[in-house]
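Worked Example 4.2. Consider the chain below.
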Amino acid sequence: MTGQTPDTELGYEQARDELIETVRRLEAGGTTLEESLALWQRGEQLAEVCQRWLDGARAKLDAAVKQSEESDR
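Applying the procedure from the previous section yields the following structure tokens:
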């Protein structure tokens, strides 16, 4: 799995797409135990990247809603 973009540089869509491919490879089988473990670990990392993006988006949305509510008062 060389040539991967560092997790800190992955956009949400890129991380999601790689996660989908990782899950597909795991579900397809035919990999060694070591390969399966590496894929699983990469999947966990990618899931964390996606969650960070989603959490950040949620925080921005919450801040915008709060600001909007305060300006309506």
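The chain has a mean pLDDT of 91. Helices lie at 12-28, 33-71. Compare this with Example 4.1 before moving on.
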